[in-house]
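Sat 14:20. Reprocessing the chain from the morning session after the first attempt stalled halfway. Input below, unchanged.
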Amino acid sequence: MLKIARNLLLSLVVLLAIGVAVVWAPDRPVEELTTRWALQPSQFVVIDGMSVHLRDEGPRDDLEPIILLHGTGASLHTWDAWTEALKSKHRVIRVDLPGFGLTGPTKDGNYQMPAYTHFMNSLMDMLQIKRAVLAGNSFGGDVSWQTAVAYPDRVSRLILVDSSGYATTAASVPIAFKLAQMPLLSRLLSNILPRSVIESSVRNVYADPAKVTPELVDRYYDLALRSGNRKAITERFAQNKPGQNESAIKQVKVPTLIIWGGLDRLITPDNAEKFHRDITGSQLIVFEKLGHVGHEEDPAATVAAVQTFLRK
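Finished this time. Tokens:
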């Protein structure tokens, strides 16, 4: 019996070790990730003391470039299709925001919104852009409209894609976001990240999960492992509470296009109506069959609405 018990215990230890090995995912240095995720025309520039990953494409004589800002857990790659459609006529700039993608964490751990709007002002200074069209999805939309409020002379138009901004209750939250909002659990799991968690989270924000390819999951998973990003997202959730500055939305005075997925369960469509109500003269387009990241899920339809807006 003792021998059986010993063999059983050994088997359990082996199975546990195998299980940990399968999900073991320590931070990966940015240098290791750039070979795949920083291909041309990627570049790294120093902004506010950070080495910032961005792509700058299209005609340099465009007086009002478009700056595209991704959402939580995403990266500049989320705008690949929009950029292809826009760059023949517009200068299009994409950037990994502080705490995300290949840019990674800030040096001081400050992820409050004034730090992000200051970053946007510094970005435009560095690129010698006087005014720009800001387009953002989710958290990137939040950064966009708050930059328009903080630096009104620098923003000519806004494009908000399923943007955050209001205190709201999600119908469904990706599991990766839930874990990131539990600081103790996040620390315990700082070297463990099952790929299935990322896959489930990406599928959660698509209306049609069948569109989530293994290559798409690879991108989200790899960049989540960038050194410091997991800690940064936990700190950002702690420092930025939804709706903490929602009263300022009425201060937006630039032409604004609001794009929303009718099946968005993370930031539900009633938020689109609130933006439309509070931003005077704004235009609202709801894509009934899309989810939270309509620019990824159906880039052709969503960017067509953007092109029409920009021609006006």
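DSSP finds 13 helices and eight strands in the chain.
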